[in-house]
Amino acid sequence: MASINRITAGQTLYTVTSKRMGNTTMRCKRVHPVYVKEVKVEGGYVLASWNGNPVRKYFEYNIKNWRVKKPIISQPF
Questions:
Q1: d(CA 46, CA 19)
Q2: Which one of 10, 20, 38, 62 is CB 3.0 to 4.6 Å from 47, fit for a cystine?
Q3: Bridge partners (DSSP) listed for residue 38
Q4: How many CB atoms lie within 10 A of CB 46?
Q5: Residues 11-59 pLDDT 10s
Q6: Which of 39, 40, 50 shows the shortest CA–CA distance to 13?
Q7: 77: which DSSP letter?
Q8: Distance from first CA to last CA of the chain, Å, rounded?
Q9: Bridge partner residues of 39 (DSSP)
Q10: Rounded to two decimals, what is the model's pTM?
């Protein structure tokens, strides 16, 4: 898990989300990259791009779920 004090600009972090597999009750996990552009420790936020989207502010409650190492997700097949 990430902390705003340990994140640096230019670092790549990862999020894990759960999505439904089509029109079923089965779920799969997806890993999305988060590219950190700027860190403002005194302001308590990070400017980052999530999954290739435009840069926006993320606060401490968002950052605490980000992962420093890329998780390995096994497929249910």
A1: 26
A2: 38
A3: 47
A4: 27
A5: 999 999 988 888 888 888 899 999 999 999 999 999 999 988 999 999 9
A6: 50
A7: -
A8: 28
A9: 46
A10: 0.84
- Within 13 Å and on the Cβ side, how many CA atoms surround 49? 10
Burial environment of residue 34 by CB neighbours within 10 A (0 to 12, 13 to 18, 19 or more): buried
**Comparing C-alpha atoms, which of 37, 31, 40, 28 is closest to residue 66?**
31
Which of helix, strand or coil describes residue 34? strand
Which residue reads 């290739």 in tokens? Answer: 52
Number of Cβ atoms within 10 Å of the Cβ of 61 = 8
**Total count of residues recorded for the chain:** 77
To which residue do tokens 């890993």 refer? 31
